[in-house]
């Protein structure tokens, strides 16, 4: 058995590294078109920050784990080919802003059809709209080399920041397919380290749809608690207390009830919009509207937070310095895709605030690129005004102390652990007075900070 994976991103890289680590008998070849990304996977400086990943890669790389840009060669040699390429929201044409762009999936299927000989198992690892396997199968069946294929769906449930833990000890592995032999072949790979009773098998369509559904349910919980946070702020209830009180009900459960400035990441919004588009496509208008509300609520939460900062700072942040702590969409990742921080920063910039941003893992280049994209239209055009604001009013610094010096306010946008351990007396002394903290993650010790002298504003809490 030889494995190839097309796509060396946040999913392809860690997932294949874990398979290679746990299955020393299986050669695993990860390929990508992006040379810089492949070079990074082959270096000591991996392209993604993920706790514990360095060790996993180091153990397997050079033994049975290889990274290259030799896509055709890897496909030709493999018995099982994972497709783990990006499936972003379409930005053009029919379904723009909602449907998944399946261009990269289709290109992979065509490449596999072109290069393959003999029999191959093709595994959908990317998150896809339900019934995508139908199109993949049709493209594969056009192979002129007499090759035959089975298509499986094996969506990935890892979360960034905990990818290694999630891959090592997943709640379940899901495999959808038609051919019992191919399903067994993939089960055997995972069974190297995962109990058989945690490997679920379903038909293809259930597997494809379960991934979109899982992300929709998770995001819905975040939007639900964030909706309640607005009511808490208006009434004197405390959202963390409410979350604890409802989370102890075993039917609700305690996870994914942390109120925040809104969910981010490359998956939740994209997958819900995709679900909405699918429902509309099948004429299910009310179902589409139901799920779309999760995204609408999330946009509202981001906007509500930046508006609260402006209102609290005496209705103007123009020329005020705001220290932004954290830019990644959650802690323990360098990923900024759809980070709520982008939109909060954009809104503050458009109010003419001066932002001093610090994130322990996100480089300046990514911060500027994300802000530029958020200020641009669908065609990638940005106004001169926004461009100037990003150039002149954004400074990226290397720690929280530097960020907060002379600042009027601190905005905590990512829940990095290191933010809890700072010398808040020192930070307070160096700030403009009154010194405000807007804790968008309810991360800090609010009582302690109030004692130091800060004016605290948190999500779902009254002052
Ligand atoms: P990514 O953008 O980090 O990686 C995708 C990679 O595929 C890129 O490096 C790109 O260069 C490469 N690629 C695209 N077309 C290619 C082609 N034709 N040949 C070779 N390489 C090609 O994306 P990701 O975050 O790893 O996500 C991949 C898929 O997994 C998506 O469908 C996503 O929804 C899903 N997913 C992501 C997560 C997550 O936490 N990021 C979790 C579960 C599922
Ligand atoms: C998500 C899914 O959890 C994972 O199963 C899927 O494979 C990919 O998408 P990810 O986006 O990496 O994973 O991170 P996740 O932990 O789900 O967080 C997503 C966003 O929701 C983050 O911005 C996080 O800060 C936010 N969040 C999460 C909250 O605001 N409150 C919570 O209680 C949980």
Automatic annotation (TrEMBL):
Q: Which SMART domains match?
A: UDPG_MGDP_dh_C (SM00984)
Q: Where is the active site?
A: 267 (nucleophile)
Domain UDP-glucose/GDP-mannose dehydrogenase C-terminal per the UniProt entry, residue ranges: 323-446
Record-level GO BP terms = UDP-glucuronate biosynthetic process
Pathway listed for it is: Nucleotide-sugar biosynthesis; UDP-alpha-D-glucuronate biosynthesis; UDP-alpha-D-glucuronate from UDP-alpha-D-glucose: step 1/1
Please tell me where NAD(+) binds in this chain: 7-12, 32, 37, 85-89, 126-127, 160, 267-270, 337
Residues bound to substrate are 156-160, 211-215, 251, 258-264, 329-330, 441
Its recorded name reads UDP-glucose 6-dehydrogenase
